[in-house]
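>> Question from a student workshop board

For tomorrow's exercise we were told to take the sequence and the ligand below, predict the bound structure, and bring the output to class. My setup keeps failing. Could a helper post the expected result so I can at least see what it should look like? The ligand is magnesium ion.
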Amino acid sequence: MFDSLSDRLGGVFDKLRGRGALKEQDVRDAMREVRIALLEADVALPVVRRFVDQVTEKAIGQSVLRSVTPGQQVVKIVNDAIVEMLGGDTTPELDLNAAPPVVIMMVGLQGSGKTTSTAKIAKLLKEKQGKKAMMASLDVNRPAAQEQLKVLGEQVGVATLPIIPGQQPTEIATRAMQAAKLQAIDVLLLDTAGRLHVDQQLMDEMKAVAEISRPQETLLVVDSLTGQDAVNVAQSFAGEVELTGVVLTRMDGDARGGAALSMRAVTGKPIKFAGTGEKMDAIEVFHPSRVANRILGMGDVVSLVEKAAEAVKVEDAEALAKRMEQGKFDMNDLRMQLKQMQSMGGLGMLAGMMPGMKKAKAAMAASNMDDKVLVRMDAIIGSMTPKERTNPALLNAKRKIRVAKGSGTQVQDVNKLLKMHMEMSKAMKQIKKMGGLKGLAAMFG
Ligand code: GDP
Ligand code: MG
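>> Workshop helper replied:
Here is what the output should look like for this input. Compare the format with yours to find the bug.
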């Protein structure tokens, strides 16, 4: 058994649990493990390389959320990058905006699942979109290939073009177009001949069929178990015809789904459907996030990080909103802010999110702020009276000496804290000016 990605990343990141931003070397170490995970999921090597480079750049400097480990944070970043690369949260639909009969041409290697997917999609179009569909098999290479489609057509209740033995694919395509026009068919699905390997004769045939039928959609059907070879397959087909999308079959199998990433990277086209079994309704619109989970095997980690991010956002936004509504930012607020910073693992995140925080951050840096300093600042605030906390202007020289003594610090430490507080309350006022809650929500969004 392989170690899970989180075990591996756990090892890499154990030493920096709870620290602030992701450092370059740490990210690179983590990416080595991510790379292995992607290769194990059968993402093609050149795609892995490109992907890892892009994500590394994105991850460096990102802050680690409270209550998650840096390793978990990296998993989330990688997950998001996969989802984004696979098309985000949008579900790509078939483009049927053309004069009928709208043609969908299915292409791919032999055994990839073209004929099965053709019938599945025809069924979807009929049942979900009320389309009048027709299917035609152009596969004259494999004996009984045309009969196979006919049988499936009967199963799903979609007409198939009558078989005339001895016809060439281009002849069948021409006949299918005529029949579809005559019968006022909305969508004509062309199931082309498969090929064992990419071979020029069949490629030429495919192009000739495309000339005749002018497909609105040309879907490359790929077996998700194809693995490393997926890139070659996709490249050869994409080089010959204008693909519009991909159908990924056998997602019910034990493939980790890496082919999805490879296909998308090489063709640049959306994956429109996922085949999930041999039955005629075993087809789904493609869900990038599910596949990302599958590739990384990290669904739990991803939702954990999402929840943590959500919690931080809500808490921070609420606390800040309250302060702003009251139009003040006193020592109690500062104390709370310092605690949050500490548990978030540093100042980077907050300062990065809030314009106007730069000066405050500089003041903090000038005071050489680290965990010990945070504790000391907490002690200083703890030594103030409640009145001083809500109204720091009360702190004259005499009171400062008392506070310094009480907290075991120097008067200059107290002064540094007061300066920082002043910068921060300025920053808070600036936020209020910038549109208050709305502006804030946008920043946190
Ligand atoms: P073609 O040569 O590209 O037309 O491939 P076929 O459509 O004939 O499919 C080859 C085999 O794969 C058949 O036995 C199908 O039932 C099976 N198949 C196709 N799609 C899927 C799928 O999504 N999941 C599973 N488990 N089997 C599939
Ligand atoms: Mg077939």
